[in-house]
Amino acid sequence: MSKLPDVTTSIFSVMTQLANKHNAINLSQGFPNFPVDKKLLEISGRLLGENIHQYTPMAGLPSLLEKIARLTLENYRRTINTETEVLITSGATQGIFTAINALVNKGEEVIILDPSYDSYEPSVLLAGGISVRISLQEDYAPDFNRIEASITSKTKMLVINNPHNPTGKTWTASDFDTLENIIEKHPQLIILSDEVYEYISFLHPHISLHTRPTLSARAVIVSSFGKSLHVTGWKVGYLIAPENLMVEIKKAHQFLVFSVNSFSQHVISEYLDVVDFDAIAKMYRQKRDLFRDLVRDSRFELLPCEGTYFQVVSYANISSQDDIGFSQELITQHGVAAIPISVFHKEATDRRMLRFCFAKTDETLIAAAEKLSRI
């Protein structure tokens, strides 16, 4: 009997395969198609011949852990203990899976806010937990009344994602104030805060759980160098959590991957001395603005994009077709691939919306927009 009977081939793989078959422009999967920073390549080439290809310590390369501590202090004014509170993971998804399986016991409930990234629920189910899926509000802000009403004595974890994939929504200071009030009433509750797009925020500086001591004391915070440095194929992320939670997470981590790719850790550790995260945010802002300007006069309706490198649009003015069918038609008849938003909902809620990834070259975005504007 399958432990994941409802899990089939990922929609991201399905759309990419269909895009490849029809030679469509792929704005579906969330990865950049432009070269990485030349400084990163220079460091990589120089370090490749050095003796850095054996296991690193289980928790991560010590120099990289120190750089993460420095980064966290500089950006969020939080001091972390590199020996007890941070863990390098094989990508953010492995970090999420490890944290959930280490902390959630059989029969315990995990609240997930829909639309949600597709790795959350399978991680809960494989841990023997029960996923409780709650829809965000129509503007994709958290519905705290529904969240609080769903908390029971069995609720172990609340998963939040900020900036939010797929919608690009970001949480406000008021949102975190409300969350603090809820958390104080439920001492058993842990937060898993997925912040992999923390350096891609447009309207205001990213508000991290790192900046909220009441919350961070009971939270596992997930980050991704793959997303932040646009090297998604390197699969290097990290978790920061208080020692009492990290002890359990490390127990599970050591039997999943033990340690993460040593070469990537060495390169990233050195690259963090020269990388400019503000420049990365500016680059993505320019791409967001370019894509929005190019599509603005089309029949697609642009929703706000406050962070991430995803743009959600409504096609309600174009078709009444369901979003999966329309996405397939968009590829086969118009040559552009997107992701239907309904796949991020437990109940497959269909509001006739699509997600486009704008982490692409300007030439790719211009070519895609030309096709979309002809629809």
Automatic annotation (TrEMBL):
One MF term in GO for this entry? pyridoxal phosphate binding
One GO cellular-component annotation of the UniProt record comes to: cytoplasm
Q: Say if the entry is tagged with keyword Transferase.
A: yes
Q: Domain named Aminotransferase class I/classII large: which ranges?
A: 24-371
Give the UniProt keywords, A-Z: Aminotransferase, Pyridoxal phosphate, Transferase
**Keyword Transferase applies:** yes
Cofactor(s) named in the record: pyridoxal 5'-phosphate
SUPFAM superfamilies assigned = PLP-dependent transferases
Q: Which family does it belong to?
A: Belongs to the class-I pyridoxal-phosphate-dependent aminotransferase family.
What's the protein here called?
Aminotransferase class I/II-fold pyridoxal phosphate-dependent enzyme
Q: Which organism is it from?
A: Flavobacterium humi
The uppermost taxa in this organism's lineage are:
Bacteria, Pseudomonadati, Bacteroidota, Flavobacteriia, Flavobacteriales
